[in-house]
Write a structure and sequence with these properties.
Elements (H helix, E strand, L loop, with lengths): L2 H15 L3 H20 L6 E6 L4 E6 L10 H30 L5 E9 L3 E5 L4 E5 L14 E10 L6 E5 L3 H11 L1 H4 L3 E9 L3 E8 L6 H6 L4 H9 L4 E6 L4 H8 L7 E5 L4 E7 L3 H5 L4 H10 L2 E7 L22 E3 L4 H47 L1
Parallel strand pairs: 5-7, 9-10, 12-13
Antiparallel strand pairs: 1-2, 3-4, 3-6, 4-5, 6-7, 8-9, 11-12, 11-14
């Protein structure tokens, strides 16, 4: 192959692959120098390779500038050039893929399930295959060949052959990214996702905060008639999602994290990063959750150790009316009535007023009955006299 043809091939490949021509030329020259040293002895660093545009030949010079090209070396040089060109193209493509996917780390991509192995699922992502190990899978999900799914790029590493892309379906970041793609207020920064605690396939708790007082962070994530959150629940195959408002008050934040249970009191110990939470007796199982899931997720979400204790119920389960309640005193340094303090105060006032009204009504009825009884004998006497 003439030198001009080699250069033309190099230019074409470099243009198609987006590789700098000089990089390819240097790789080929180094490969030819190594081939020459291997064939005729010496070190490749001691030889310089030049392309002769006039004769179409590849020439080898030593460090003194002397032409040491051997007869018949042209065939060896061409083979070395081809191998170097192929190797360079592969190397550059690997670097391009690695650079592309390292920028996508922590982001969501879509792909088709290509292969299912014993402990991993292989996802076809286009230029590369993503590996989802067993630890990143969700046990309740059914993976089938050809199915298109969304996955989170968990990690990207360089391998001897191709870049290794690790993807996940169980990561809490997958939920965050799904909400970011679904909720414009999160994309533009008006609403922030503060924390996410997830038990993949079962339940997720997410705390959100709004930088605009006019924007409801929870409502933004739920969407009109729940359309936004339902789209994400569908993508997660029915996984339950609790969205709570973040509060700078740790008491209110912990109380919110235990929703849907109603919290009556939060007592915190900042030294031990521990919170003791009181809930009505009829809310105790709801606060703890099935197998302790609700309080466990609240613990992960707030990063506080949470202990729950039941108190005498202050809410009637049917009417929601206030019952007698006495908050337990504690020696812990700081306490708060949590997010339900206003509700409790209002319910208490209403209950006291109702009790007062009922007492006055009973007293009035009692007085009326006593008055009737006092007048009853006189009436009977008058009746007997009339009969006589």
């Amino acid at each position: 192959m003439a030198t001009s043809e080699i250069k033309l091939a190099i230019a074409q490949v470099a243009s198609e692959r987006g590789i700098p021509v000089d990089d390819v030329l240097n790789s080929i020259k180094n490969a030819i120098a190594r081939a020459y040293a291997k064939e005729y002895g010496g070190e490749s660093e001691n030889f310089n390779v030049e392309f002769d545009d006039e004769t179409g030949e590849i020439k080898i010079f030593d460090l003194e500038g002397k032409d040491v090209t051997k007869a018949g070396f042209g065939r060896i040089a061409v083979n070395a050039a081809k191998q170097a060109l192929t190797s360079k193209v592969r190397e550059v493509e690997k670097n391009i893929i690695f650079s592309d996917y390292i920028q996508k780390k922590g982001k969501i991509v879509s792909g088709n399930i290509f292969r299912i192995d014993r402990n991993s699922v292989v996802i076809d992502l286009g230029k590369v295959q993503g590996i989802m190990p067993y630890s990143e899978q969700v046990s309740s999900e059914d993976y089938r060949l050809g199915n298109r799914i969304k996955v989170l790029i968990k990690d990207v590493t360089k391998d001897t052959k191709d870049p290794q892309v690790i993807v996940s379906r169980s990561s809490a970041d997958l939920v965050s990214q799904l909400f970011e793609s679904e909720v414009p207020e999160i994309t533009n920064g008006t609403v922030e996702i503060i924390a996410v605690a997830r038990e993949a396939g079962s339940r997720t708790k997410m705390a959100v905060y709004s930088n605009d007082d006019k924007i409801d962070p929870v409502g933004s994530c739920v969407g009109q008639k729940g359309v936004r959150v339902q789209a994400i629940i569908h993508e997660l195959y029915g996984e339950k999602i609790d969205i709570i408002p973040f509060s700078k008050s740790i008491e209110k934040y912990i109380a919110s994290a235990l929703s849907p249970a109603r919290v009556t009191e939060v007592v915190i110990d900042e030294a031990e990063q521990k919170a003791t939470v009181s809930v009505p007796e009829d809310q105790l199982s709801l606060a703890i959750g099935k197998d302790g899931q609700n309080v466990r997720l609240a613990n992960k979400l707030t990063h506080w150790k949470i202990d729950i204790k039941g108190t005498k119920s202050i809410f009637d389960s049917e009417t929601g009316s206030k019952k007698e309640f006495n908050a337990s005193e504690s020696s812990v340094s700081k306490s708060s009535m949590g997010i339900w303090d206003q509700v409790i105060a209002q319910a208490k006032a209403e209950a006291e007023q109702k009790a007062k009204n009922d007492q006055e009504a009973l007293k009035k009825i009692s007085e009326e009955k006593d008055s009737e009884l006092d007048s009853q004998p006189e009436t009977d006497s008058e009746t007997n006299q009339e009969n006589k």
